[in-house]
Amino acid sequence: MTATDYNFAYLDEQTKRMIRRTILKALAIPGYQAPFASREMPMPYGWGTGGVQVTAAVLTPEDRLKVIDQGADDTTNAVSIRRFFARTAGVATTEATTEATVIQTRHRIPETPLTEGQILVYQVPIPEPLRFLEPRETETRKMHSLEEYGLMHVKLYEDIARHGAIATAYAYPVKVEGRYVMDPSPIPKFDNPKLCSPAIQLFGAGREQRIYALPPHCSVVSLDFEDHPFEPSKADAACGLCGATDSYLDEVITDDEGGRMFLCSDTDYCAGRQAAGHRGAAQEDAA
Amino acid sequence: MTDAMLTGGFADPPIEAARAFRAAMEAMARPGSVHRVAGARPPAPLSPAAGALILTLCDADAPLCLVGAADTGEVRGWVAFHTGAPIVGRGACAFAVGSWEDLAPLDGYPVGTPEYPDRSATLIVDGADLSQGAGAGAARLSGPGLKDAAFLRLPDVAAFGANAERFPLGLDAFFASGDLVAALPRSTCVEAA
């Protein structure tokens, strides 16, 4: 199968023009959710149809694409989307963050700092940060237009009243350029500081038909209170394979007797550290 | 119908439009940065860069306003043949193309609504001065997309300053010259340098 059996990057040209116009408006109004006419894609909603459409609209034949799912390059969703574009756009693919020009991601920002010239495309399930506080789209539109975000602070306050700390651990709301409150997609709040990046960040929500964006070096502030400042948290452990203490960790159950270990969620970062000779506790036990 | 109307489109539309869009997107994401867009040969007086933006972004769903000297029979024919975009007045357009003298003043273009600020026009200012760096006539740009200040020679600093004041409403602009393009989104703060 070659790229010539499909139009370049799968979508037809009129659809790509529509998505491209939306991306430009989204970049011009950072954090604002621009509606777009999301198409049916050859994968179910929830598998990254929004991210795939945005990626299809920005890809050029010269690009090198990386796809990650929860930080991993080797899970089903990541592998199938990478193959999808290798087949329909003929682009080169990679698992190395530093080699990629376009990175489509589900729920993580790579540990390796992104650089100018890279594009990070997020898959977004629910783009509206106010949706669970106010179910009506007409009302949330109005709240964004009036900059009426008091309800979001009430929600964070209720977290503190009930749990003693802000318990929101992922999809932690941010304010962009002092104007729009934005859902950074379900990335762990550990990743929130990385939203200020030299790369272009595009967010695509297929089912909800929204695209939003962060231009490079954009001001992105996680909402908090003076006496309860925002803290990017992670498991208090080191990676069992590479020993990293500065990366976001997944907890993995290893047997049915309570055995467990922590691993880097970013597989490329972990493999890179292991190749450089770093070893974690689990590796030393095995040796 | 003349040859000029029927020729001058992209030779390989999916690929060339993808490259032109990436240049346009980089320009919009990094205000004041200059990028090359190639592949279009529109009739005079449009520049190749303005032509490439029209081919990449306009179609039946994105009406175009041709202002002043850009509104010729040949340009209308070229736009109709290559994009199918309706030619409309400035109050109904998604894109407007022409020289700054013909585009100004900036009132009269759609600037979006408070709930849908994306429903606003994008201007393509043709024949702009894209020479780089600070100096006489350069405006200082700061805001989203810029780590440090950038400089761009704007035809009217006060008009674009007033446009930025209306954020999140407002117009976004591309500046085209030859095969080069730069952009100024409404989010950028503009000062006379």
From TrEMBL, chain A:
<comment type="function">
    <text>Catalyzes the breakage of the C-P bond in alpha-D-ribose 1-methylphosphonate 5-phosphate (PRPn) forming alpha-D-ribose.</text>
</comment>
<comment type="similarity">
    <text>Belongs to the PhnJ family.</text>
</comment>
<keyword id="KW-0411">Iron-sulfur</keyword>
<keyword id="KW-0479">Metal-binding</keyword>
<dbReference type="GO" id="GO:0046872">
    <property type="term" value="F:metal ion binding"/>
</dbReference>
<keyword id="KW-0456">Lyase</keyword>
<dbReference type="GO" id="GO:0051539">
    <property type="term" value="F:4 iron, 4 sulfur cluster binding"/>
</dbReference>
<keyword id="KW-0408">Iron</keyword>
<dbReference type="GO" id="GO:0019700">
    <property type="term" value="P:organic phosphonate catabolic process"/>
</dbReference>
<keyword id="KW-0949">S-adenosyl-L-methionine</keyword>
<keyword id="KW-0004">4Fe-4S</keyword>
<protein>
    <recommendedName>
        <fullName>Alpha-D-ribose 1-methylphosphonate 5-phosphate C-P lyase</fullName>
        <ecNumber>4.7.1.1</ecNumber>
    </recommendedName>
</protein>
<dbReference type="InterPro" id="IPR010306">
    <property type="entry name" value="PhnJ"/>
</dbReference>
<dbReference type="GO" id="GO:0098848">
    <property type="term" value="F:alpha-D-ribose 1-methylphosphonate 5-phosphate C-P-lyase activity"/>
</dbReference>
<dbReference type="Pfam" id="PF06007">
    <property type="entry name" value="PhnJ"/>
</dbReference>
UniProtKB/TrEMBL annotation, chain B:
<dbReference type="GO" id="GO:0019634">
    <property type="term" value="P:organic phosphonate metabolic process"/>
</dbReference>
<dbReference type="Pfam" id="PF05845">
    <property type="entry name" value="PhnH"/>
</dbReference>
<dbReference type="InterPro" id="IPR038058">
    <property type="entry name" value="PhnH-like_sp"/>
</dbReference>
<protein>
    <submittedName>
        <fullName>Alpha-D-ribose 1-methylphosphonate 5-triphosphate synthase subunit PhnH</fullName>
    </submittedName>
</protein>
<dbReference type="InterPro" id="IPR008772">
    <property type="entry name" value="Phosphonate_metab_PhnH"/>
</dbReference>
